[in-house]
Amino acid sequence: MKTLIVITGPTGVGKTATAIELAQRLHCDIINADSRQIYRGIPICTAAPTPEELAAAHHHFVAVKDLDESYSAAQFESDVMQLLPVLWQRGDCAVMCGGSMLYVDAVCRGIDQLPDISPEVRTAVKHKLQLEGLDSLVAELQELDPQYAATVDRKNTSRVCHAVEICRQAGVPYSTLRTGQAKQRDFNIIKLALNIEREQLFDRINRRVDRMVEAGLEEEARSVYHLRHLNSLNTVGMKEMFAMIDGTMDRNTAIERIKKNTRVYAKKQLTWYRRDPSITWVTPDEAVTTAINSI
């Protein structure tokens, strides 16, 4: 049976290196499941695979979208489900690597069928966000769908906007369209989450941010500063650099804030994954052997 091996876990834990080693051992491709690495122009901020890493194994969905292009977990599910039959013709395995929880779930469990958002609705919601701010959309969501508004992260611009768009487009509350039922896949899924001791993980995150700064994170942020309103740039690393460029945060504070916010995100990832009983927890050193023995 065809098998998709998922390598996930918190940011900074070493997923890319593990996925490349596994793909080389199995002679298969890697499907990127990082929602920000899909975009071009911000490889330092997103810790995208380096040219050497991309050469070491064939990757899909890395730097394939412009920053002003909209993309979603639902589109990712559709794209991956079209790609997998092509990969199955070449071999029995594929590796999916990334820490974007919704993207991983989209492929492993599926996403509910939701209406396509018209350009008019998307533009109207975006216009309201720019003119009145996120709080105005949160208030609208509270009126249109109080059930979802009670559970959504109200500081997550992407999710709030998406929910409002669905409510406007469908004419019914977003929550009524979410079934939560997993789709049946015609391939086997082995889901491994990498983890290490918390202190070690946080040290790895801090040191990676230092390397990102040395590699030119500030210059990268300045190169896209004029596009800072785009959702693709609403991410840790860019937000803090933009605040520094705006003059509302000094450089040292911005760097320390990136480290802190990345650690917070890692904890959120761990909390999310621990709710999933289908995940097998392994250290990076155990992952490749565990995956191969599970096929």
Topology:
Layout: E1 3-8, H1 15-26, E2 30-32, H2 51-56, E3 59-60, H3 73-90, E4 93-97, H4 101-108, H5 119-132, H6 134-144, H7 146-149, H8 157-170, E5 188-194, H9 198-215, H10 217-224, H11 238-246, H12 251-274, E6 279-282, H13 284-294
Parallel strand pairs: 1-4, 1-5, 2-3, 2-4, 5-6
Overview of the molecule:
This protein has two domains: 3-111 and 181-294, 3-Layer(aba) Sandwich (Rossmann fold); 119-177, Orthogonal Bundle (Histone, subunit A), CATH 1.10.20. It has helices at residues 15-26, 51-56, 73-90, 101-108, 119-132, 134-144, 146-149, 157-170, 198-215, 217-224, 238-246, 251-274, 284-294, and strands at 3-8, 30-32, 59-60, 93-97, 188-194, 279-282. It contains 13 helices and six strands. It is α/β, with parallel strands linked by helices. β2 (30-32), α2 and β3 form a beta-alpha-beta unit. The mean pLDDT is 95. α5 crosses α8 (157-170) and α10 crosses α11. 35% of the residues are buried. A six-stranded parallel beta sheet has the order 3-2-4-1-5-6, with helices on both faces. Helices cover 53% and strands 9% of the residues. The longest helix has 24 residues, at 251-274. The termini are close together.
Strand content: 5-15%
**Rounded average pLDDT:** 95
Spatial strand arrangement across the major sheet:
3-2-4-1-5-6
| Helix-strand category | alpha/beta
Instruction: Write the element-wise H/E pattern from the N-terminal end onward.
Output: EHEHEHEHHHHHEHHHHEH
Total DSSP helices:
13
The total count of strands amounts to 6
Distance between the termini: 9 Å
The CATH architecture of the largest domain comes to: 3-Layer(aba) Sandwich
Count up the domains.
2
Look up the CATH topology of the largest domain: Rossmann fold
Helix content: 40-55%
Task: Please tell me how large the radius of gyration is.
Answer: 19 Å
| Level-1 CATH class name of the largest domain | Alpha Beta
